[in-house]
């Protein structure tokens, strides 16, 4: 159950980070509310998960999910670079996430 919470928190973290692009410095109401709500929900889910998971592992996986998700959406939504060094770097982050998950004993 704790790992599910980490993955959900990571997904909500992606919403949080992408909504930062749309709130334009907290000058737009609805995107700003989405930013605040998704940030709070993501942190809350992470805090529930670290009750049973090692904090370092859970935090690293959570940030990795967020980083990869936002980078991929940046490519898709905002036409950011999709060159091979960037994609290789994302793959390395994914390998790190998987490695942390499979080596966790919790």
Description of the molecule:
With 106 residues, the chain is an all-alpha fold. The protein has one domain (2-103). It is built from four helices and no strands. It starts with a helix and ends with a helix.
- Our measurement of the CA-to-CA distance between the termini, rounded to an integer number of angstroms, reads 11 Å
Provide the domain count.
1
Mean pLDDT: 96
List the total number of helices.
Answer: 4
Sheet having the most strands: none
Binned strand content = under 5%
Structural class: mainly alpha
Number of strands: 0
Low-confidence stretches: none
Secondary-structure element string:
HHHH
Tell me the overall shape: flat
- Work out the helicity level: over 70%
Rg value: 15 Å
Q: What topology does this entry show?
A:
Blueprint: H1 2-22, H2 29-49, H3 55-78, H4 84-103
Helix pairs in contact: 1-2, 1-3, 3-4
Keywords:
mainly alpha; 4 helices; flat; 106 residues
Quick summary of this structure?
This protein is 81% helix and 0% strand. It is mainly α and 106 residues long.
């Amino acid at each position: 159950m704790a790992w599910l919470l980490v993955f959900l928190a990571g997904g909500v973290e992606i919403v949080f980070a992408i909504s930062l692009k749309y709130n334009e410095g907290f000058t737009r109401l609805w995107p700003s509310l989405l930013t605040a709500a998704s940030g709070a929900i993501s942190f809350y889910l992470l805090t529930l998960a670290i009750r049973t998971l090692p904090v370092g592992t859970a935090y690293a996986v959570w940030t990795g999910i967020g980083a990869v998700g936002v980078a991929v959406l940046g490519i898709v939504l905002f036409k950011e670079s999709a060159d091979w060094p960037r994609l290789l770097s994302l793959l390395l982050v994914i390998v790190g996430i998987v490695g942390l998950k499979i080596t966790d004993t919790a």
